[in-house]
Amino acid sequence: MDIYEALYTTRMMRRLRPDPIPLKAQARILDAAVRAPNGGNTQRWHFVAVDDRDLIRRFAALFRQGRALEFAKFASGAGPMAAPAPGADTAAHAETMHRMKGSGDYLADHFEEVPLLLFVFAIDDLGGANIYPAIWSALLAARAEGVGGVMTMVLRNFADEVNELVGVPVEQGWKMSAMLALGYPLGRWGVAANRRPVHEVSSRNGWGKPFGVEVPQPLWPSQKASTGSANE
């Protein structure tokens, strides 16, 4: 798969089929993840793959409770996604949140059917600087395998319960960074087109100064911008 196809079409997939992911595919996904850059090559990460159906059912109950907590915050105007980014369209943000809630509801309602949960743990991660490249590499590798997924922080609302269920040695400093729900998607891959264009969210040599090129449409697969080739 072309690297740009992977980058442009890897998106959060919350509607997943129950079909199991072969162990060899899981190994390739995690082998790609551990090649990610990390400060000092300290590799302070650990991945716990969960495909035990009883464990997944127990996490499903916690996930639904966590979503109720998160959306209660959202409804009150709190939480990180309640307000759009400065300059973003309020109506478009509301529509995005509506769609996301719909797909999130599907995941919550069918959580017991998810074939693989991947819990990601780290030590002293400086806000995620080391672990998020590994997570993104895992999602890109999953895309190459035809596997979709979504990264979620919802279960961090129940970190103690998660730690107990998977036996995390918290005394060593391990903390859950995120969880990935992985499976073959029900939907289709496609370019995430509902993005503010590069020239609206980027500057050059100072905040608010023109970036220098306009990109009104995604550059992949055409690789062309309105002002010429992306290589110019």
For this structure, the CATH topology is NADH Oxidase
Give the CATH level 1 class.
Alpha Beta
Q: Could you say how many structural domains there are in total?
A: 1
Oligomeric state? single chain
* Uncertain segments: 224-232
What series of H and E elements makes up the topology?
HHEHHEHEHEHEE
Q: What separation lies between the terminal Cα atoms?
A: 25 Å
CATH superfamily membership: NADH Oxidase
Strand percentage? 5-15%
**Topology, number of strands:** 6
Computed structural class: alpha+beta
Q: How are the strands of the biggest sheet laid out side by side?
A: 1-2-4-3
Major sheet, described briefly?
Answer: 4 strands, antiparallel
Mean pLDDT: 89
CATH architecture: 3-Layer(aba) Sandwich
Q: How would you sum up the global shape? A: globular
Protein described:
InterPro entries: Nitroreductase, Nitroreductase-like, Nitroreductase/BluB. Residues 10-184 form the Nitroreductase domain. By secondary structure, the protein is α+β, with helices and mostly antiparallel strands. The chain has a single domain, classed as 3-Layer(aba) Sandwich (NADH Oxidase). Helices cover 38% and strands 13% of the residues. It has 7 helices and 6 strands, in the order ααβααβαβαβαββ. It has a 4-stranded antiparallel beta sheet with strand order 1-2-4-3, with helices on both faces. β5 and β6 form a beta hairpin. α2 (23-33) runs antiparallel to α5 (131-144). Residues 224-232 have low confidence and may be disordered.
